[in-house]
Each structure stands twice: as structure tokens, then as C-alpha cells.
Request: fold
Amino acid sequence: MLELWNKWYETLASIEALATVVVIAVVAAGTITLVEGWRRPTKH
Reply:
């Protein structure tokens, strides 16, 4: 039973790590997009 719990916990930790990486990537992409927008102001 303990082995099963450890396996499940490892899987959960892996999913959490993957989600963290995805969130960081999305935030980084959003920041880059904002910075690019600020560097090239749109002409009206």
C-alpha cells in the first residue's frame, strides 16, 4: 500500500512540476510580448 502511495505522490509531483514549467513559459511569453509592444509603439 505504501508503494502505491509513493508512486501516486511521485506522479502528482511530476504533474505539478510540469504545470509550473508551463506557467513560467506562458508568463515569459506574455512578458516578451508586452516588452516588444512597448519597444515598438503603434503609430496612430
Q: What stands out?
A: The first helix runs from residue 2 to 39.
